[in-house]
Amino acid sequence: MSSTALSQFSIPFLMGNNLNAWSEALAGFNLFGLPLGLVILAAIPLVFIALYSLTYGVYGERKISAFMQDRLGPMEVGKWGILQTLADILKLLQKEDIVPTSADKFLFVIGPGVLFVGSFLAYAVLPFSPAFIGASLNVGLFYAIGIVALEVVGILAAGWGSNNKWSLYGAVRSVAQIVSYEIPAAIALLCGAMMAGTLDMQKITMLQSGSLGFAHFFLFQTPIAWLPFLIYFIASLAEVNRAPFDIPEAESELVAGYFTEYSGMKFAVIFLAEYGSMFMVSAIISIVFLGGWNSPLPNIGPLALNDMTNGPLWGAFWIITKGFFFIFVQMWLRWTLPRLRVDQLMYLCWKVLTPFAFVSFVLTAIWEVYVP
Amino acid sequence: MSNQTYTVIFYLFAAITVCSAAFVVFTRNVIYSAFSLLFTFFGVAALYVFLSADFIAVTQVVVYVGGILVLLLFGVMFTNSIMQAPKKSEVLHIIPGTLLLAGITGALLYTFYTTHGWMPSETTLQGSIVERIGFETMSRYVLPFEMVSILLLAALIGAAFLARFDKPGK
Fold first, then answer.
1. Which residues of A touch B56 (CB under 8 A)?
2. I need a surface site. Which of A65, A71, A127, A361 has the fewest CB within 10 A?
3. Architecture of the domain whose range is B1-82
4. What pTM does this model have?
């Protein structure tokens, strides 16, 4: 079995366009009886998070924010400051790893780890291409919503372990925010799941494919879908602690929130976790409402744009592009909108988003039953 | 993966569950025991996955880690005196405690040895398990389902009533 798997593995791009072909070939790849393929399968999203947060996450955000504020941003290291992130990483690696004397050593150390694992675990069910998904679960979407819980515990561990009032307040604010906004977010995603009739991420994406491209996406299938789409987008901003909901790390009030005491690599891990969950929510919104790895281009008469731009590699391109687009919107909002107060945040969640999420839930149900 | 790998992973998760559960009980630091519960809940979720109950495993994570554990941590963190309070109770009931322990262990072992083995259902599962759970809750178990939702609604209203501000005029 091992040898046949190896011969398949050596030609990954010739394995055809079968659903999950790459990931299944990887999962069956054993070296010396050890499931090495499974390790590679898990490592691919990890490498992706690291690469994307280094390039687009840190450098891109600094440049975008600079252009929005009519500045130049990093310009010194390399042409247009391209090597700035690399220099930052080298600096972070060399920094002394400081653990405050009065901190709870164990919780202080495991906090960032649990936080990162929480944001990384959801990548298991994100279909990165028609041929690649970490684990094709039939409860994929539910899992992706639920696993955020681990992140919450990581934030609390980091905040409490720091033994600092700013950190604890930041952690408590962050957790209260994430736990509250999970409700409108989950109900909004449930509308998408109702339109699909399944929780399997790969199936949700397949249901949105067709020769008309974007017209098959759930967002354009019903007029109601815009409501859960917007609700989920707003709630996802709060879930990843991005502006205008960045009160957990409000620098004018709390220094830096739950990661005030962190420095060096632990700080980098916390930021990696934040960028990881930013792409995660962007990918989820693209999968549920915007067709995931499906090409948005329609077939126009003899010009079969949709057929030309669909396939395993194109799929990876489309989902990453869609994810990056939503991350761009998140950055854009961050540098445009002021921060909400805590009471305004809770008002928005419980008195605006949750009722509208219920309304969209009922309307979607009626639409699905009565409109053919 | 081979059967042996599954066995190894199963025992790994079983060990995590049991060890962290023991840590919850034996540690003297309340915060540590609360955080240790995280590993217990995840271990139990992993054991559900081994029983092919994916949906229950995810529900376990959502309800216990996302709900109960966070509530517990908030409670522990905001209760100032919890770290100073004496942990050892003055009242010790050794004989009833031992009897209770022996009784429960005996009953569990008896159940395990008399009813072990799998009991296959008459109807085979067709399609996704989520679909099946949805149909069952909306048809055969609709009354318990609705009763539970009314119970939760009552609890929610009660909590909101207790937590709201008293108007100074009253």
1. none
2. A71
3. Up-down Bundle (1.20)
4. 0.83
